[in-house]
Amino acid sequence: MDDYVCPIAAGPIDATVSLPGSKSITNRALVMACLADGPSLLRKVLLAEDTLIMIEALRALGMRMTVDERDCVAEITGCRGHLPVTEATLDCGNSGTTMRFCTALTCLANGRYTLDGVERMHERPIGGLVETLKSLGAGIDYLGSAGYPPIHVAASGLSGGHVSFHSPPSSQFVSALLIVSPYARRDVYIDVTGDVPSASYLAMTTKLMDFFGVAVVEQYAYQANDAIVGAAQPARRVRGCKFIVESSQRYCGTTWTVEPDASNATYFLSIPAVVGGRLCIDGLGLESIQGDAKFVDLLEQMGCLVTREAHRLTVEGPRDGAGLRGIDVDLNDMPDTAQTLAVLALFAKGSTTIRNVGNLRVKETDRLSALSTELTKLGAVVEETSDALIVHPPQTIRPARIETYNDHRMAMSFALAGLKCKGVTIADPLCCSKTFPDFFRTWTSLIESIVRT
After folding, report:
1. pTM score, two decimals?
2. Of 105, 213, 409, 438, whose CB is crowded by the most CB atoms within 10 A?
């Protein structure tokens, strides 16, 4: 596909948007439903590259499911904790959740499994999860570099007991173990020390487990972040957590409707911040189990007006000619929103500092380095550290061709830069197929529907 030419907004927006389901919820729910006793019906599942990779991996393990792609519904017959296939090779593509969740899942069986992915997956760490699973009785070998996929699993079930993670590079390590813990032979006690990235995703995992009938005892330890001065609310970061999962529990088949993807919603919620007006997202609100729904708190700090309802979020741009203001935030709890905020910072008065997001370096690409390079093309002055980014906005945004590094979030977030600057183009727009195949079609239709007043 040719480069995407970003459309300029003709004026303020006034729109209500419905978005596809959450990737994070879909992939967690698929695994739990497959393990469950009885059938499950999952509505509004996301059908995109990452979730289709998960579906094919689960089918390769013998899981029975029917997917209606038109209505985004998955009907799943649970395996009651017994994986039907004892030998399989799983292609996990560049899906971190598939690689990590299926690594833990296969350890429940009695069989042999190989898990591999694209070249970038060979650079995405898995060592902390592998070592923890080995301590619970799994036999796992690295087929390439130690600590990274591809891997071979020689499974004979998980024993249970006490395990620990210290500053894991991804919360997916902990979520993967949590999801399979009910099927260990003994209770599982998980102790996570040090920095806990994306802790809100752990809460998402335990809430979904509860919905499928498994209770988790959880406790989080918080520490104030003294580095952030002048924030609207005191900044806290998770500095450790503990979980207990009793092995006597089992997932129960259920019916579940997947929420819109909160990470993908951030691009649309940011439109009125740039061009004015208002935008509503249906299906996402105060009752969301996704931490990224709190991105609206950042928009509020920058000067937007936010209305929060149970299943609806509305953002209005700054009023009375007031522009956006730069902010200083710790985004460790929702790092997938960092690219949105970094691009939004181009339009703010004053610099924006994004802290404690070192784990962005082991995502689909090194997102901190990629952001620094592409924001500089647009005229920003960017300071990059090992785990932070400071964006000093330009007087005028310059036209540029934005490289996307095969990273869907780079492509989607930089569409915001083109709302007021002619000549911003996005390379490789098809990389959005990872979580939102129709993103640019939806974006174009929305922006071109704005009528100049």
Report:
1. 0.94
2. 409
Residues 274 and 364 reside in one and the same domain: yes
Considering the domain architecture, whether residues 68 and 188 belong to the same structural domain is answered as yes
Q: In this structure, are 33 and 12 located in the same domain?
A: no
- DSSP state string for 119-158: GGGGGS--HHHHHHHHHTT-EEEESSSTTSS-EEEEEE--
pLDDT confidence tier of residue 230, bands split at 50, 70 and 90: very low
pLDDT of 236 higher than 80: no
Residue 425 shares a structural domain with residue 277: yes
pLDDT tens, residue by residue, 331-381: 999 999 999 999 999 999 999 999 999 988 988 889 999 999 999 999 999
Closest CA to 229 of 330, 359, 332: 330
* Phi, psi (deg, nearest 5) at residue 10: -80, -15
Structural domain including 57 reads 23-257
The answer to whether position 453 is within a domain reads: no
Q: How far apart are CA 12 and CA 279, in angstroms?
A: 10
Active site residue 37: no
144 and 13 in a common domain: no
Distance CA 205, CA 50 (A): 17
Cis before 150 (ω within 30): yes
Total domains in the chain come to 2
Q: Distance between CA 207 and CA 25 in Å, rounded?
A: 10
Out of 50, 336, 407, 428, which one is annotated catalytic?
A: 336
Cβ(165)–Cβ(176) below 8 Å: no
Sign of CA dihedral 262, 264, 265, 269: positive
Q: Are residues 230 and 85 in the same domain?
A: yes
Distances in Å between the alpha carbon of 367 and those of 42, 152, 245, 330, 388?
32, 29, 34, 16, 11
For residue 179, what are its two tokens?
């999801």
- 164's tokens: 């620990």
